[in-house]
Amino acid sequence: MPPAIPAPGAPAPDAVASRSRHPGLVMPVLAFCGVVVAVMQTLVVPLLPHVPDLTGASPGAAGWLVTVTLLTGAVFTPVLGRVGDMYGKRRVLLASLGVLSVGSVLCAVSSDIGVLITGRALQGAALAVIPLGISIIRDELPADRVLSAIALMSSTLGIGAAIGLPVAAVVMENFDWHTMFWASAALGVLDLLLVLWIVPESPVRAHGRFDLPGTLGLAATLVGLLLAITRGSDWGWTSPRTLGLLGASVAVGLLWGWFELRTVSPMVDLRVSARPAVLLTNVAALLIGFAFYANSLVTGQMVQEPTSTGYGLGASIVVSGLCLLPGGLAMVALSPVSARISAAHGPRTALALAALVMAVGYAVRFFTSHSLWLIVAGATVVSSGTAIAYSALPALVMRAVPVSETAAANGLNTLMRSAGQACCSAVVAAVLAHVTFVAGGHTAPTLHAYLLIFLIAGGTALAALVATLFLPSDRTGGARGPLRGRVGGTVTVSASVTAARESA
Questions:
Q1: SS3 labels along 475-502
Q2: Which of 91, 229, 271, 347 is the most core-located residue (most Cβ within 10 A)?
Q3: pLDDT by residue (tens digit) across 266-281?
Q4: Residues ≥6 apart with Cβ < 8 Å to 479
């Protein structure tokens, strides 16, 4: 074990109590913020089929209510993580929640599609709350609570998504659709007040200057790439617009990488990101994000398919949303279990187990697609694996990066999950649009379309398992060193983290 040494900028054990009025409430408040932000990502999904009638917009314009949230979340998550590392995580957390509240109010007061898209863009930018919360947890909580707290905070991304669909469906069935945006605005303001009251500012700071050219280059690369992926099925995968965006994003990305390697204080430290421990963790996050999102996308639609298809159950929008609720509850319950697995056997083992559970879940779904309860059971198994995976990923990231880069590194990992979801959305849309038949006078996806999606998602989970197995062993390099926290006024730092600091 490496010797216990003081971590640069790390507070003493009693500093947490002196900075926070109620240290026991820091974790619940941050987790609540994470759930609220994650709910925003899926809030409009049940609304999408009705947007053209409610706003007079075209179906293509309605699709931007999801696309723009994905784009702004992908761009602002790593950027605001880096800003938080440099200028204060609590400060940036408050700004993100303020942006969420403003975006929610814009959506609540208007039925104009342009205003709605603007509001949804602001809501998406608040996704940075989750990596910021993880970083605050690492800075503030005692060592014996860090793993379990990080596990819960990371899982809020999946918990909120599972809760958002049924809640939005209930609102759509019983209230004016603007109500859900008023509610989200109120929750955003409540989050702001709770953070102001409970969460202290961390003294841990990254040094250097803000990399504006690197930020713009990263934004241009991500926007071009994700636009091509998410809109390619509508524009045509071989259309000049899609191919042009892909080509431009690759060109800008190469130029951005060249610049980042030569700047003193880069937006993304590519040398750290290229280390196997970080790179393979981000690859696994991409694949896990894909496998998780397939479960969310197809479950509701599958049970809503009319009975005339021969496999559909003709369920209501509320019932379809409730199918994902047991998975959300399972994620809450399994977050501390994942933390215990990581503590006992290492986060690499936890992530490998999670990927295997997700693959088994899709095998269950492949063979049980005619019964509502078995569909729910299969979806819950996939969600259970997602909970363990989302809990293990931040622990893997933080054992391999400097303390001063925690928020930025977790922001990049969250970005990879979002990119996986974007790829999944494009694949699912393509399969369901092209593997169809005529049932009851209407064109609908065949059962084989859904089964193909389950095969693809299960294969992706197995690919995540392979990537995980190539990660450095939990036994090497003091795997859990950076998470062991404060012992007698010091922080036990693994050899890998010490080396990362020296090279940064």
A1: CCCCCCHHHCCEECCEEECCHHHHHHHH
A2: 347
A3: 888 888 888 888 999 9
A4: 346, 347, 348, 399, 472, 473, 494
| Rounded CA separation 107/121 (Å) | 10
Cβ contact 266:260 at 8 Å: yes
**In the 8-state DSSP scheme, what is residue 443?**
E
Q: Which helix (H) or strand (E) holds 4?
A: strand 4-5
The candidate with the shortest Cα–Cα distance to 176, out of 100, 107, 99, 102, is 107
**Are 477 and 462 contacting, i.e. CB atoms less than 8 angstroms apart?**
no
**Measured between alpha carbons, how far is 504 from 502 in angstroms, rounded to an integer?**
6
Q: For residue range 446-485, what is the model confidence (pLDDT) as tens digits?
A: 999 999 999 999 999 999 999 999 998 766 543 344 444 3
**Nearest-5° Cα angle at 23, 17 to 25:** 170
Please give the sequence-ordered ranges of beta strands (E in DSSP) within 368-478, or none if there are none: 436-439, 442-445
Whether pTM > 0.85 for this model: the answer is no
Task: Determine contact, residues 352/281, Cβ cutoff 8 Å.
Answer: no
Query: Can you spell out the DSSP letters for 119-182?
Result: HHHHHHHGGGHHHHHHHHHHHHS-HHHHHHHHHHHHHHHHHHHHHHHHHHHHHHHHS-TTHHHH
Which structure tokens are listed for 256?
């951005």
φ and ψ at residue 443, rounded to 5 degrees: -80, 130
What is the rounded CA–CA span in Å between residue 363 and residue 456?
11
Token couple for 412: 């990049």
